[in-house]
Amino acid sequence: MSTSTRENDEAEPQRGYWRWSKQDFLPEESFQSWNNYVSALSQTWLRFKDRLFSRSDDATETEELKKQSEHDMKRCLNWWDLIWFGFGAVIGAGIFVLTGQEAHNHAGAAIVLSYVASGFSAMLSVFCYTEFAVEVPSAGGSFAYLRVELGDFVAFITAGNILLESVIGSAAVARSWTSYFTSLLNRPKNSLRIKTNLKEGYNLLDPIASGVLVIASVITIISTRKTSFLNWIASAINTAVIIFVIIAGFVHADTSNLSPFLPYGAKGVFQAAAIIYFAYGGFDSIATMAEETKKPSRDIPIGLVGSMSMITVIYCLMALSLSMMQKYTEIDTGAAFSIAFQSVGMKWAKYVVAFGALKGMTTVLLVARLSQARYITHIARCHMIPPWFALVHPKTGTPINATLLITVASAIIAFFTGLDVLSSLISVSTLFVFMMISAALLVRRYYVRGVTPRENLVKLVMFLVIIIGSSIGISAFWGLKPNGWLGYTVTVPVWFLGTLGMSLFLTQQRVPKVWGVPFVPWLPSLSIATNVFLMGSLEYDAFIRFGVCTVVMLIYYFLFGLHATYDMAHQQQMLKSKVDQTETI
Length: 585
Hints:
The structure is a single chain. About 50% of the residues are buried. This protein is about 70% helix and about 0% strand. The chain has helices at about 5-10, 20-25, 35-40, 45-50, 60-65, 80-90, 95-105, 110-135, 140-150, 150-185, 205-220, 225-250, 265-275, 295-325, 335-345, 350-380, 400-415, 420-425, 430-445, 455-480, 490-505, 520-535, 540-585; strands spanning about 195, 205. The protein has about 575 residues and is an all-alpha fold. A hairpin with an 8-residue loop joins strand 1 (about 195) and strand 2 (about 205). It is found in: Membrane. It comes from Vigna radiata var. radiata. Pfam families: AA_permease_2, AA_permease_C.
């Protein structure tokens, strides 16, 4: 940029953070008048074709789009903070609830193998996320990565689904927080909720759940650094409780409870693995904090891979201790650890377990407020939602507007909606986005615009179709005939040959600068297969909900998001041309 242009920018008066003009919400040309909007709608198909194959780049996501926030987020986190953020984001009530449920219903004593299987799948996704987070250190996380490799449309539909699930998930955790708090006080189940005459599932109002969400949001708004410190303390206490549970469990262990080890066979192990996979959810939150990390290339790999490795070991030890304390047929599906300790004469331990679960849910909500707000901030930077939500406060260095949006949405849902209704909304979105990230990583490694020959691009698309198609086939055969073997003799070799073909007939076009996934394309391809396999183990209703959410996202995209991003892209192109002309002169 020329000196005169820079001086003009510096001379422009600084605008205040709290502002409400139309230009702050709808600055794009398409929304300046009704006629403009109608004209934009009439060009929807042309604009869609233009944006469908338009991809961003690393510099745009990490540098250019940050200008939309007007102020930078404060770089105040290191690898130690990220490890504890990993603990805070992942270890919630899931380990205490899902372990007993799945040991009793599906896996038996082999529940530890279910945690190994789901942990392995999660680690594959962690590797892919880590490479992207180091190469594209943006607050947008998976949204930014998919925009770079697969384009606006795929990024928005994928990110929109997972964001919607995150809002609903936060509301569910907040409702669970109230339930565990009630249990800790030794009071009746719904005694802290307000009973009304509304429809069943919406008739128990929960002001405590909404209050917890608001308090967590206020903390994250004040300072990311202080939030990290508070998360560190809460996660350390929760870890101490978990260590107590593991040690006490092994002290009262009876190895005879491990027999029979596989009462439901391999099918039960993988059915349980698909469900307890959600106990590993949340690690992607670390990737959204890249802009606030002092040294992303060093701190993010340590934070992501380090925290998830330790969490996998902790989960397996907890599952094993429970299986040895009680026979799988006697494990309680509602309060597994509390009842197990009671059976060995430690009735008081149920309060320790409830306290640990409460602490775990608190940190999950705290880290979720951070990551979801940054996710929204980056989506707003791209103008897919009003850019007012992209603003970063100059004093706190945090995205207050984005935090308010996510908090209001979650708090309203948590206030009115029962936990049973919220739990039924768990969808395939998480596994879907992990699968897409793995596919995007393969695209990143094997395709560079302007460098890769068209012939190699065609081969890459063909091999990706083979890998994803065969993975769907493996998942489908598992769902239809889990005890059969004939279908696997076709689908597994096809997956293997597709991955082998990519390895032999394509040359990697890009080498990671600092940290990269090893054994490419094998590990990303295996990540695709495992995520699709686990998706196939979910209920049919989950795919219906995923489809409905996607349709809602499509309607929004074609009515608003498409035209806003189209206008922004063309405005930036015009601005770049003017700058180039000025520099030439």
